[in-house]
Amino acid sequence: MPDTGKVLGIDYGDANIGIAVSDINQDIAFPKITIKNISLYDLIAQIKNLCDDLGVVEIVVGMPVSMSGLKSPQTIKTEKFISELKKMLQIPVYSHDERLTTKEVHVIFASLDVTGTKEKRIKDEIAASLILKNYLDLKRNKGKKGEARGAIK
Predict the structure, then answer these.
(1) Which of 26, 61, 136, 152 is the least crowded, having the fewest Cβ atoms under 10 Å away?
(2) Class of domain 6-142 as given by CATH
(3) Burial class (CB in 10 A: 0-12, 13-18, 19+), 49
(4) Which of 139, 69, 58, 57 is nearest to 97 (CA)?
């Protein structure tokens, strides 16, 4: 895992894929774009182009796990997506527990009074930025606190 260079964060969904990107020092996560999930290979091609354009050195994908830790149908789909990303890209790809991310997005939107069309348009990339920020914080603190919470092996 490189300590510098941009990291891409992905919130994978059936209809939309939220994308976020870090700064080169891996301190800040910026919402970037929402991509329509038309087909797996079209999606991976778009992600590859983004990675090439932005100079991405690492990818983190939010892993939907139930509060009890059990796999859901969406977990299986996300695992397949990650597997294909790893096959198609020459960039390290990791997963990160995304539990409560959606709830956090709703709290942020409520506090900012963001509703309706604007909420629908940006919620996936905001979720991706939260996943990415949590991952970056975890990565930075891993050496300080031993095994970090949230990382999925």
Answers:
(1) 152
(2) alpha beta
(3) exposed
(4) 69
Nearest Cα neighbor of 91 from 55, 53, 124, 64 is 55
HSE-up (13 A, CA, CB side) for residue 138: 19
- For residue 46 the two structure tokens come to 């778009």
Which tokens sit at 13?
Answer: 């969904």
Predicted confidence (pLDDT) per residue in 100-134, tens digit: 666 666 566 566 666 665 555 677 888 899 899 98
Look-up of token digits 């774009």: 33
**What's the residue count for the chain?**
153
H-type helices in 1-153, by residue range? 40-54, 73-88, 101-112, 116-145
- How does pLDDT run across 66-93, given as a tens digit for each residue? 677 778 888 899 999 999 999 999 999 9
Phi, psi of 2 (to 5 degrees): -65, 145
Strand partners, 10: 19, 61
